[in-house]
Design a protein that fits this description.
two-stranded antiparallel ribbon; mainly alpha; 72% helix; single chain; globular
């Protein structure tokens, strides 16, 4: 990678990290129910970084963790944000091996569901120690972990992924950005 591309990648990474830090701090749409928090677009910066490279997606995941910490979220939420490094790295490396993935809406949907599932599993593992044996019955525990965190994360992740696709479709029109990214084009509908 030449110096110009390195500087552009680093600058774009820094901008995405800044966005990832700011979103949890200023987002007007925050819903917090027990261990689950929904902050609209909180995953968008990481998901856009997925389209650039695994290293960028990992850096942005770490940056968004800092954002949740600085925004004063509870420890369990900050640790859930830290778990994003897992799906960001898996997704980033998968995209490198399957860069044609975003040329088919069906493959894109399958990727979205796979990443959302990995995302949910990682977050459920994070919350289990906080709620297991905390005096709640099994039904309440399952509702919190599998319902709110598991299913909630899949839905939240999927919504943010759709936002990311729309934003990336516009960003990838810039040849400088397209030249440094793994994903060159995103097709939201077949052959569009």
């Amino acid at each position: 990678m030449n110096t110009h591309k390195k500087i552009l990648t680093m600058t774009l990474s820094a901008l995405l990290i800044a966005v990832g830090i700011v979103i949890p701090m200023i987002s007007p749409i925050k819903v917090q129910i027990g261990p689950m928090s929904f902050t609209l677009a909180s995953h968008v910066a990481i998901m856009i970084a997925l389209f650039i490279s695994p290293k960028v997606s990992i850096a942005v995941a770490l940056g968004t963790t800092l954002g949740f910490f600085l925004a004063g979220f509870p420890d369990v939420v900050v640790l859930r944000a830290f778990s994003h490094v897992i799906w960001a790295s898996i997704g980033g490396y998968y995209i490198i091996k399957h860069s044609d993935l975003f040329q088919s809406p069906i493959k894109t949907l399958a990727f979205n569901l796979a990443i959302a599932t990995i995302h949910a599993i990682a977050e459920m593992i994070i919350v289990i120690p906080f709620y297991y044996g905390a005096g709640m019955d099994l039904q309440a525990f399952c509702y919190m972990v599998f319902g709110l965190v598991g299913l909630g994360t899949i839905v939240h992740s999927s919504v943010d992924f759709i936002i990311s696709l729309i934003v990336w479709k516009a960003l990838s029109q810039n040849t400088s950005i397209s030249n440094i990214s793994t994903v060159k084009k995103v097709y939201l509908i077949k052959n569009a």
